[in-house]
Design goal:
112 residues, alpha+beta, Alpha-Beta Plaits, 5-stranded antiparallel sheet, 4 helices, globular
Length: 112
């Protein structure tokens, strides 16, 4: 199984957990409709540190593949990131921002 087959695990950081979670769900629901991949993500429980709320966001392989296929031209602008997961995280960060969701998106570090 390749890393791509496993989807991507991200960490979301924001200041308004309830609002951020709702905005992310709405944005991803829209994305699921665009690419025809449903139930394509899971949101983990929140934890608070340093005035931020952090939570996990796991993108399942079908949704990730659909996004990478449908938005390949937009993802190409993130080629400076050598790691595929980091490119995907940067794209989602900009996508969420375009949907009025101001959160930070990073690739989750294993073991957290």
């Amino acid at each position: 199984m390749s890393a791509h087959d496993a989807g991507v695990s991200l960490e979301i950081a924001g200041h308004d957990y309830t609002g951020d979670k709702l905005a992310i769900k709405m944005a991803l629901s829209h994305m699921e409709s665009l690419v025809g991949a449903y139930n394509g993500y899971e949101i983990g429980p929140p934890s608070e540190r340093f005035g931020w709320t952090f939570f996990g966001l796991s993108i399942k392989p079908d949704l990730q593949a659909g996004i990478e296929s449908e938005f390949s031209d937009m993802l190409a602008k993130y080629q400076k990131e050598k790691d595929r997961s980091k490119r995907f995280a940067a794209f989602l960060s900009d996508y969420f921002a375009s949907r009025n969701c101001s959160v930070k998106v990073s690739v989750a570090v294993r073991g957290r």
